[in-house]
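To whoever is on call:

I kicked off a structure prediction for a single chain this morning and the downstream step that reads the tokens threw a length-mismatch warning. I double-checked the sequence; it's 181 residues and nothing unusual in it as far as I can see. Pasting both halves so you can look.
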Amino acid sequence: MKKILLLLSIVFGTATLYSQDLYKAIDGSIAFFSETPMENIDAVNKTLKALLNTKNGEMAFVVTNVGFVFDKPLMGEHFNENYMESDKYKVSIFKGKITETIDYTKNGEHDVTVLGSLDVHGVSQERSITGKVLVKDGTIILNSNFDIKLKDHKIKIPKIVTENIAEFVNVKVNITLTQKK
């Protein structure tokens, strides 16, 4: 937990130094979907915090693991207790850098690649994630769709349910940011 607070302090603390180049999330969601033979599993989390530095392309976002909402409350219980161990691993964090140079003062849509690290379930993995950046009238929208292999983050699937749980989940990110004031 101290590591998380330190990271957020650094990311958000330096924000005042470059406020004209910093954009913060005003709305957004991170959702995941897993297709299984027994039943599909999906959840959405709208409690994310995110920052984008338009000067250098650095970005970070964090979500609380207990913030994922499922259609069936029992799925949420299993997710938090058996898989994510949310009492131990409270948040998931991505920090990275957009590799393309974008003029954020002009409206447009840009295909991007973000290189960074994704920390889920206490395991950090280097990732190259593709997505889109939409700049429209001073607002920036980030969209991405990628897969996460559960074993890459040491999320264990009990043998009794291995036939009913997919080895990966599809993640969709949609974040709307405005200039930090």
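Update from on-call: the warning came from a stale cache, not from the record. Cleared it. Sanity check on the structure: The CA atoms of residues 7 and 13 lie 9 Å apart.
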